[in-house]
Amino acid sequence: MKRILFYILITYPICMATAQFEPNYDETKVPKFEASDLLTTFDGKKVNDTSGWENTRRPELYHFFEEQVYGKVPGKLDSLSFEVVEGSTEALGGKAIRKQIEVDMFKNGKSLSFHILLYLPNNGKASPIFLGYNFYGNHTITDDSNVIISNAWAMDNEDFGISDNTLTKASRGVRTHRWAIEKIIDGGFGLATIYYGEVDPDKNDFSDGLHRLFYEEGQTNPKADEWGSIAAWAFGMSRALDYLETDSDVDAHRVISFGHSRLGKAALWAGASDQRFAAVISNNSGCGGAALSKRKFGETVGRINARFPHWFSDTFTAYNDNEEALAIDQHGLLAQIAPRPLYVASAEDDQWADPRGEYLSAHYVTPVYQLYGKKGLARTKMPQTGSPVHHTVAYHIRTGKHDVTEYDWEQYISWAKKFVAKEE
Questions:
Q1: pLDDT higher than threshold 60 for residue 415
Q2: Is 229 a catalytic site residue?
Q3: Is 310 buried (19+), middle (13-18) or exposed (0-12) by CB count in 10 A?
Q4: Residue 143: strand, helix, or coil
Q5: What pLDDT is stored for residue 21 in this prediction?
Q6: Beta strand spans in 126-248 (E)
Q7: Percentage of residues in the chain having pLDDT higher than 70
Q8: Helix, strand and coil percent figures for the chain, each rounded to 5
Q9: Residue 61: which H helix or E strand, with range?
Q10: Active-site entry in 150, 257, 261, 361
Q11: DSSP labels for 265-318?
């Protein structure tokens, strides 16, 4: 009885908050709006060339998202160290090299560690890399018994054998279907992945993740305009890239920021914040990711802030049920990636993430890419399901639900071979 009462007390505020912001799945209820012109500054000046984009428009858009959506990183680390704690040249039956790297971050006399699981083609060449987070631990993406099991906090999942917020060998390999490791290796790419809970546990508690390293004396939460979890995860991706730049088996100039769902949001912000990433892939990233907020379709700004108050900065709550007040929509985030290759992908049954809003957002960045002579998505009409469009800005929508599938990876590998691994 006490347990039931406790559950009610904990979930009641969340249920009440989210009830105020019901999702919309009716296109006829999408409000009329115009997507802001990416090539006109906030004070009305027209941008006509790459210099104007890079020196004026891009910075002002970046600062908007930093100050109003994802939050500022409050400083720099004092130091950073790397250690390869395990490795083999006989992974995947000998076709791959496996490395497990501990990354240690230090600030204000405090530290935090996370682990990179890295698979590379065993071909003696420096390999381009897909870098992305996983949801339940590095050991869940493969059946490889040598992969270390994290001791970080994890969301309970009965189907995966995770209870008491503790990862065990019971969950080894439960997410192999999301990571086409052998296809990636066979395609000439490496894969680097990190359990996101090691960088910042996915809960509304800023006491045990990356944020605490930066706190001033007596501080227990980020300030209103400071980073939430998405920005912290993006920061962790950049620190992983710091390591990859030291590894001679990695082509560090061709590291692709990849992410699914909330981690797709993090991948986009990582690519916007750190131009060392060669390309960015957003898989079903939805609200606060690739999808246009002003469509108010599927998950809305108010609903995401009520359900996941730790993901964004507190300043983002000013747009709860007030998306029309946004000075720029999410196409302004996608435009931060230009002129680097960008891939946005959706799923037909994932209406929560608003596939049409994801596509339109990618479409609206086309004028920015055209400044660089790059090809975007010229048509406002979405491509048919299963008919990917592979330009510098790429898009596909597949059948199925909110997930990462073998079909998705086949598209990413094919596209990356053309636009990332080789010169266009």
A1: yes
A2: no
A3: buried
A4: coil
A5: 80
A6: 127-134, 190-195
A7: 95
A8: 40, 20, 40
A9: helix 58-65
A10: 261
A11: HHHHHHHHH-TT-SEEEEES--TTTTS-GGG--BS-HHHHHHH-TTSS-GGGGG
pLDDT of residue 17: 54
**171 belongs to the catalytic site:** no
Instruction: Count CB-CB contacts under 10 A for residue 273.
Output: 20
Q: What is the secondary structure of 316-382 as a DSSP string? A: GGGGTT-GGG-SS-THHHHGGGTTS-EEEEEETT-GGG-HHHHHHHHHHTHHHHHHTT------SSP
Q: Residue 301 to residues 9, 20, 229, 293: CA-CA distances in angstroms?
A: 24, 12, 16, 7
pLDDT at 13 > cutoff 80:
no
C-alpha span between 43 and 34 (Å, rounded) = 17
The answer to whether residues 350 and 397 touch, using CB atoms and an 8 Å cutoff, is: no
Supply the pLDDT for residue 8. 37
pLDDT at 22: 84
Confidence at residue 20, expressed as pLDDT on a 0 to 100 scale:
72
What domains are defined for the chain? Answer: 60-419 (3.40.50.1820)
CA distance 24 to 45: 35
- The pLDDT value given to residue 3: 34
- Kindly report the pTM of this predicted structure: 0.95
Among 10-14, 179-183, 374-378, name the one with the lowest average pLDDT: 10-14
Closest among 290, 297, 254, 296 to 269, alpha carbons compared: 290
* pLDDT of 9 over the 50 cut: no
DSSP string across 11-46? HHHHHHHHHTS--B--GGGSPP--PPPTTB-TTSPB
Q: 149, 56 in Cβ contact below 8 A?
A: no
Show the tokens assigned to 228. Answer: 């939430």
Which residues make Cβ contacts (< 8 Å) with residue 45, sequence separation at least 6? 56
Q: Which two tokens stand for residue 173?
A: 């390999």
Please provide the average confidence, as pLDDT, over all residues in the chain.
Answer: 95
Torsion on CA atoms 182, 187, 189, 192, rounded to nearest 10: -30
- Cα angle value 283/377/286 (rounded, 5°): 30
Question: Given this model, what pLDDT does residue 18 score?
Answer: 58
pLDDT tier for residue 131 given thresholds of 50, 70 and 90: very high
Enter the DSSP assignment of 226.
B
HSE of 268, CA atoms in CB hemisphere, 13 A = 35
Residue 138, helix vs strand vs coil = helix
Is the pLDDT at 308 greater than 60, yes or no? yes
